[in-house]
Amino acid sequence: MTSTTGSATDLDQVIVPAVPPVHLLTGDVPALQVADQLHLGSQIVGRFETSGMVGFKVASEGRPLRVTLSLSTDDRSVSGWHTGRTEPAGPGPRFLQIRSQGRLRQCVLLRGRKSHARVTFDLAPEEIPDDGLVCIEALDITEGDGISDAVRDAVKGRVTPDGVAGVRLNKVAFEEPPAVDYDPDTLDGIRCEFYTLISAGGLANLNRQGTRQIRAGMFLVNPALKDRFGSSGRITFRLGTKAEAPSLIPATWKRVNSELRWLRHATKKMLHAAAPTVVSVHHLRDGDMGTPEVAVRGNVTELTVPSPSSAPLLVMLAPVAGAVPTLECGIQG
């Protein structure tokens, strides 16, 4: 016999919310209430079929939340992975939008067969409904509204279609933002990506510090967290180039041609003429921002942009024969 209290019964499932600070590592936690186009996992939160959404019930109790996601790709990160009728991934990077509570928060580029990325953003108390449901969407750059057509035209043919297909959602963390974050005025390229200020294709080896190679030919500048590096109003990125060793240049090129290209770039560096070229800067919502604010000093290009707040910026770089553009550091203020 089932006892009742009002409209509830003993058979009703009790929803246990996630209580911050908490790290959710699997898809079988009671707090996970919504999953759309996401296959839940036992050692990860889940894997996306294609662009999709996940929702968690969180006991925020009127406090702000800092949300951190861990994403990655592997051999199964291809369209149709869940049906067995797979399609090879395109040659370009994946370009993903991360939205929450209906708003664009950050974007990431994931380049290569095995890459990792972090996404971090804050939710204000008024953005969290009374029932505590926090929804997180992962969308391909070609999908959804609020993205400038100019941005989609700029990356057309340069990014992998159906970029969310097979992407792993490894972990979701909910925490209360710290009262104050103390940061230096300068961050090297690798730590700029670790801080989620930029995304250039996936996290580099975090045991290293220094320059970040930008093999995708583009990188994203994400809205900075409150009081974190990059939130002071303006950011200057110091961009350089690194000569590609002949052995790493595609084998389809003749060896002698490869070495000539490498020597040509090395000569340019000696003559202080190897600075990369910024083609354009786009605001993801508003489109082309006009002529980039750049200063060339020797082999370095300094690009200055306003700290984005409502949406990320997309920076497009010109290809450099025999070389790879690099991000040496970011300087705020």
Describe the structure.
- The protein has 333 residues and is mainly β.
- It folds into two domains: 16-182, Jelly Rolls (Sandwich); 186-246 and 261-332, no CATH class.
- Helices cover 9% and strands 39% of the residues.
- It contains three helices and 22 strands.
- The protein has helices at 149-155, 189-194, 255-270; strands at 4-5, 8-9, 22-24, 32-40, 46-57, 65-72, 94-100, 103-110, 116-123, 133-140, 168-175, 186-188, 198-199, 212-213, 218-221, 234-243, 278-283, 287-288, 293-297, 300-306, 313-317, 323-332.
- Strands 3, 4, 5, 6, 7, 8, 9, 10 and 11 form a nine-stranded antiparallel beta sheet that branches. Strands 12, 14, 16, 19, 20 and 22 form a six-stranded antiparallel beta sheet that branches. A five-stranded antiparallel beta sheet has the order 13-15-21-17-18.
- The protein is globular.
- The protein starts with a strand and ends with a strand.
